[in-house]
Write a structure and sequence with these properties.
about 180 residues; alpha+beta; 6-stranded antiparallel sheet; two-stranded parallel ribbon; 8 strands; globular
């Protein structure tokens, strides 16, 4: 007797990405492996004026060119992640000709023999702010995972710096303790 209220649990992405032990896959590869129809919208791409922060992350001099790629990842019509990625042009001369709406950045990097195999990474959770809220079409009361990683190829070259904003209502992160 009485009123019972039950809320359908939200289906969240469980994205386990362990760069430290070679178990990582990119977000696009993860969705491809699950059969989910991830759509990649390229919001911006091209050679950027390098700023000190980006040059420092990539270990570049002021003379080195940097390629910037900004993508919105969309699943079932809803934003899942917003990714800002920069790579040194010296390793990826023809990167501006690559179609990142159809093909993976990591697949491209592999064809250039500069696939990232080791990473420095950090993750924080923060309240979504402008312009992330506008681009991802989320509220300023929503929270996002902020993942930053710097990738190095097999020769130790720094080949990528990415900052990714992923909706907390769309994803769950986990960790594994090993002895």
């Amino acid at each position: 007797k009485g009123t019972f209220v039950w809320k359908q649990p939200v289906k969240k992405i469980l994205y386990l990405n362990d760069h430290s032990r070679g178990k990582s896959i990119g977000l696009g590869a993860y969705f491809n492996s699950t059969g989910a129809p991830l759509k990649n919208l390229v919001l911006e791409k091209g050679v950027m004026n390098s700023c000190f922060y980006v040059r420092d992350k990539l270990g570049l001099s002021a003379d080195d060119s940097i390629f910037s790629l900004v993508r919105l990842r969309v699943l079932d019509g809803e934003s899942v992640a917003l990714e800002y990625c920069v790579v040194p042009m010296k390793f990826f001369h023809d990167i501006n000709n690559h179609n990142f709406e159809k093909a993976s950045l990591y697949d491209y990097m592999q064809t250039q023999n500069h696939f990232p195999v080791t990473f420095e990474q950090k993750m924080t959770v923060q309240k979504a702010t402008f312009p992330i809220t506008r681009i991802m079409k989320i509220e300023d009361t929503d929270f996002v995972y902020v993942l930053e990683y710097v990738g190095h190829d097999k020769d130790g070259n720094t080949v990528e710096f990415t900052r990714s904003y992923m909706r907390c209502d769309q994803a769950v992160y986990g960790y594994e303790i090993s002895r």
